[in-house]
Amino acid sequence: MKIKESIAISESGFMFDPSTGDSFSLNQTGKEILAFLKSGKSEEEIKEIMIEKYEIDNFTLEHNFYDFMEMLKTFNVLTAE
Amino acid sequence: MEKLKYERPVINKINAGVTDKFGMGHKIPIIQELEGNKISDLTNKYGSPLFVISEKKIRDKYNTAKQAFTTRYPKVQFAWSYKTNYLNAVCKVFHSEGSWAEVVSGFEYDKAIENGVDGKNIIFNGPDKSIADLTKAIKNGSYIHIDHFDELFDIIKLTETVSEKPKVAIRVNMDTGIYPKWDRFGFNYENGEAWNALNRIMLSGKLELVGLHTHIGTYIMAPEAYGVAASKLADLAINVDKKFNHKIKYIDMGGGFASDNTLKGAYLPGKDTCPSFDDYADSITNALINSNLDTQNLPTLILETGRALIDDAGDVIATVLANKRLADGRRSTIIDIGVNMLFTSFWYDHEIYPTKQTGSHSEDTTIFGPLCMNIDVVRSAIKFPLIQKNDNVVIKRVGAYNMTQWMQFITMRPKIILIDTKGESHIIRENETGQTLTAMEKTPTHLT
Ligand SMILES: Cc1ncc(COP(=O)(O)O)c(C=O)c1O
User: What interface predicted TM-score (ipTM) does this complex get?
Assistant: First the structure.
């Protein structure tokens, strides 16, 4: 999964998709994950980084990560490939 | 390196044009304890879900209401509306404050007697009173509020066999300018039916006409409606006095004051929009005092306030069973209490709070109960923080009607506890078990 090229994310967690005109708000972890995705990191790499950095167990993160990716799909901010 | 505090990743779409009434990044308050008891301690001890009633809140609310009326009118009497919450412990708190009992069935009547209420302090309302119920009520000197002519004739007939003179009032329905008009109960004012009933009672010579009653509806947001109703009852009392030289002892304004809950679809929270007891009291007492009733001999004002006295005192603690995404991306949270036990979620947008600190982010969430049914929606849309499975939530203001109208369905009804004024918790109703239910079943022998 990749984030659409054109998407812009601000420091404060504000995200804009110029192709649809939609804007979004992200929390800290959401913002980080999106930034990693945008930089081309794989989902596995991102999860490892998150586990390192945050007080969270594998299982819950896996769960939440999956849910977050589903939201990105719903909001149409991922590209097909 | 110390790890950072984690929060679920979340993304929310910003809807241009639709202003979020709470603004972005709104921090949702949390409820960590109820009357000094930690939520986790309560669920560990009593399980989840758990209804929690605060004795202090009942007493405080009652005294606020009482104060509003007694400072404006010389003779005021509250009668606890049993159907609103007839747990014995709850009724007894009200009775200990001086409330009479207002009942609407033989079952409730017996409950009031068992709770130690003097028969003379019981008001018997409703369209469903059996001959046995009526006989008992007459013998005990209770106030029978007649609902229809058939009942009036039953009571007149009973005077042939029962020696005590029945003490009666009539229930009056009327146009008070609000919708819906509750004209199913009692005798109509405008078409003269109420006056006709009063004449029959007086002319029978067999009944003691003690009062006039109305109950104009429930969750009435317009205090003026009570003023209209009080004036109409005052007129009837004056006319009875003129024609029969008989003074009515009380005017009973029923229940119907709004609680601080927010009705579904209302834009602003009930807390900010509902009239106060002072508003209702102003309207009612002004109407009575400004009427032509003899000011030296004013009838007692009786109030059967239910909802507004008990809603605030009841909370329910529930547990998150799962978080899910709906097909359109909305978040849904399933909790362990559904609409069968939280009947009022059909009426209200109940306030729901997390019980532990979460980040400042929230998501539009639908909160479902555990029933396998589409209608089982506890809150259809609420900005809710990111809580996880097994976390607790507290649903506020569930004290009225839920604990009397709840239905058992697929799971058992939970415990109810009362937290007393010292912060001690007591079970006031046990949870059901599978046995409670199967004990009532019988299997025909050919199926055993
Ligand atoms: C006769 C009567 N009195 C009092 C009440 C209590 O009403 P509320 O809870 O709206 O105050 C009711 C409720 O339906 C009622 O029917």
Answer: 0.92
